Amino acid sequence: xxxxxxxxxxxxxxxxxxxxxxxxxxxxxxxxxxxxxxxxxxxxxxxxxxxxxxxxxxxxxxxxxxxxxxxxxxxxxxxxxxxxxxxxxxxx
Length: 92
Ligand code: SF4
Ligand code: SF4
What we know:
Strand order of the largest sheet: 1-4
Oligomer: single chain
Bound molecules: iron/sulfur cluster
Strand content: 5-15%
Number of strands: 4
Distance between the termini: 51 Å
CATH architecture of the domain at 12-75: 2-Layer Sandwich
Largest sheet: 2 strands, antiparallel
Helix content: 10-25%
Order of helices and strands: EHEEHEHH
Number of helices: 4
Structural class: alpha+beta
Low-confidence stretches: none
């Protein structure tokens, strides 16, 4: 078996120029995946558990300076599966 670690996709990018270190993204993430050291205006938030992000977009929506960009993985962007196959058909 290979010892090479599988690269984990980074789901969000935070712009250090526009981030005002407000902690809101850390506070809102429903999976508690983002960590921002409180009371420290120097440090940027970091995503601690990138492989657990489910791309809900809450961190991006709450960010007051639009510093967060969501980076969807290729598998999501190129998914051609139709909605009925994914969610099932409503039978009346
Ligand atoms: S997209 Fe949702 S789950 Fe992913 S880091 Fe942002 S708030 Fe958390
Ligand atoms: S919500 Fe936006 S401005 Fe606030 S810490 Fe997160 S990335 Fe920075």
